[in-house]
Specification:
Helix content of chain A: 55-70%
Number of helices of chain B: 3
Radius of gyration of chain A: 26 Å
Largest sheet of chain A: none
Number of strands of chain B: 11
Number of helices of chain A: 10
Helix content of chain B: 10-25%
Order of helices and strands of chain B: HHEEEEEEEEEEEH
Largest sheet of chain B: 7 strands, antiparallel
Number of strands of chain A: 0
Oligomer: heterodimer
Radius of gyration of chain B: 30 Å
Order of helices and strands of chain A: HHHHHHHHHH
Shape of chain A: extended
Structural class of chain B: alpha+beta
Shape of chain B: elongated
């Protein structure tokens, strides 16, 4: 089996191999810890070959001209991760009870739980941040022409992720169950219903019946915290796989560097 | 054995020279095994996926049961002005299950529509026919006015301004002894013809009634 190439680290970061005859008798605890860690990583890698995948993913060649705009995708992903983590902890306190328990549990988180206001604030404002970042990322992709062949499928996945993010925002908006949440959801569901033929059925599916009822809130909660996050995580995986597989594009202003001296010597 | 071309045209595995083939056998055992395994997998997946899907979609097809709610005494409602009453559409979820309904006595002078003849009282839903905000009866202007997007309706609930696509919904009414009772919701088009209830934003005039079918759960 061929040896995988070492990652292209800059020279100062590479650890020089130990010189023969030195260091053997004077191993510090740090050296032992280092050796132990290497042994553990090797043990796992021997059985999973994960280091190859990690290297394939992390040490990619990127085109000249790659700049800060290329970080918007990662920024969106970290916004999602932040939503996922804060959401999991909010779920420990939230009660999807339409007869007053939902509002009371949110009030409890906001006013009484240690750091509750902060975690809920992260989730609430983070959702807006995520939507903004999704659009900036989409704009970057569009204006840099990064949606063109062979990356069309990644654009399509990205559009689905955009729609899922919107669905997350919509279903999450009901959960505080205050006046704003209730009426915004009424309006949102009814806008769904204005789609011809399927619209009324989509609205009835969302409401869990022909009108807002006892199961609507728990329906929205389940969609918000189980169905959509799973879909989004899976599609982010596919999105990232295609990014690593196809590579990133150079910005449109990047000129092809012609090495004229080579052309002349060819002749 | 025949050449490749004839070997592939025969449907019997025996003719194709497959070792261990039985006479009359038309499918290789490898294909049969693969198909069986995939079929079993699909069956296993569907055995939980289909019930789960039906479970999630089921409420769409659940029909509402008829219910009547007493809203007041007979002489409580004038025939030229509305009295707001609170109706509990969905019990058990507190304020979220309640809605305001505007009720007045049937008035032969203004309720000339033949469909309204059997209604002893006229009950108008406060749910705006645009996207469902709560409208308010403004006595001075004799209009229902929606605070969200400026929908305006007249005394009969017909749209006179703003974005709504049809008149305000109504409720069936009946007299039970001394009490006025309000029942199920129904929607009306601009001629005040009765339809099964639709969600707001769904027009009922012309082709609208076919483009926006009432879901089974809403049928009355």
């Amino acid at each position: 089996m061929p040896k995988l190439p070492a990652p292209p680290l800059p020279a100062p970061l590479k650890t020089p191999p130990p010189r023969p005859g030195t260091g053997n008798g004077t191993a510090t605890p740090a050296d032992h810890a280092h050796k132990g860690a290497v042994a553990v990583v090797d043990w796992v890698d021997e059985r999973t070959s994960l280091s190859g995948a990690a290297r394939w993913m992390m040490f990619r060649k990127v085109p000249k001209g790659t700049n800060w705009f290329y970080t918007l995708g990662s920024a969106t992903m970290f916004a999602f991760l932040s939503q996922a983590v804060t959401g999991v902890f909010l779920a420990m306190y939230y009660r999807p009870d339409a007869s007053g328990g939902a509002y009371e549990s949110i009030r409890y988180v906001t006013n009484d739980v240690f750091l509750g206001q902060f975690v809920r604030g992260m989730h609430k404002w983070g959702s807006s941040v995520m939507v903004v970042l999704v659009f900036l990322h989409m704009g970057r992709t569009f204006f840099f022409g990064a949606y063109k062949y062979p990356r069309e499928l990644n654009w399509v996945i990205g559009v689905v992720l955009l729609i899922l993010t919107m669905a997350m925002s919509f279903t999450g908006y009901l959960l505080p169950f205050d006046q704003r949440a209730y009426w915004a959801t009424q309006v949102g569901v009814n806008i769904n219903g204005t789609g011809p033929l399927l619209g009324p059925y989509l609205s009835a599916f969302l409401l869990g019946g022909s009108e807002f009822n006892a199961t609507t809130l728990s329906r929205f909660y389940a969609i918000h915290m189980l169905l959509l996050p799973g879909l989004i995580a899976a599609l982010i995986g596919a999105h990232l796989y295609l990014v690593a597989k196809l590579g990133t594009t150079a910005p449109p202003w990047q000129k092809v560097h012609r090495r004229d001296e080579l052309l002349e010597t060819e002749v | 054995m025949a050449d490749k071309r004839t070997r592939h045209t025969s449907k019997y595995t025996l003719d194709r020279g497959i070792p261990g083939a039985f006479e009359g056998e038309t499918i290789t055992r490898r294909r049969f095994m693969t198909g069986t395994a995939h079929g079993t997998g699909a069956l296993a997946a569907m055995s939980f996926a289909l019930p789960a899907l039906a479970f999630a979609v089921g409420p769409v097809f659940k029909t509402n049961t008829e219910h009547w709610e007493v809203v007041g005494k007979l002489d409580q409602f004038p025939d030229n002005n509305y009295v707001p009453v609170i109706l509990t559409l969905n019990p058990g979820i507190g304020e979220a299950g309640k809605t305001t309904v505007y009720v007045r006595k049937f008035n032969p002078e203004i309720d000339t529509d033949p469909y309204d003849k059997n209604m002893p009282y006229i009950a108008i839903s406060s749910r705006c026919a645009h996207v469902g905000c709560p409208v308010r009866w403004v006595d001075a202007s004799e209009r229902f006015i929606c605070p969200c997007h400026g929908g305006v309706y007249d005394l009969l609930g017909r749209r006179v301004g703003g974005p709504p696509v049809r008149p305000l919904d109504r409720f069936y009414t009946r007299v039970n002894g001394e009490d006025v009772e309000v029942g199920m919701r129904f929607s009306v088009n601009s001629q005040l013809r009765h339809f099964s209830p639709r969600l707001p934003g769904e027009p009922l005039d012309g082709i609208g009634q076919y483009l926006y079918p009432s879901v089974p759960g809403a049928k009355i």
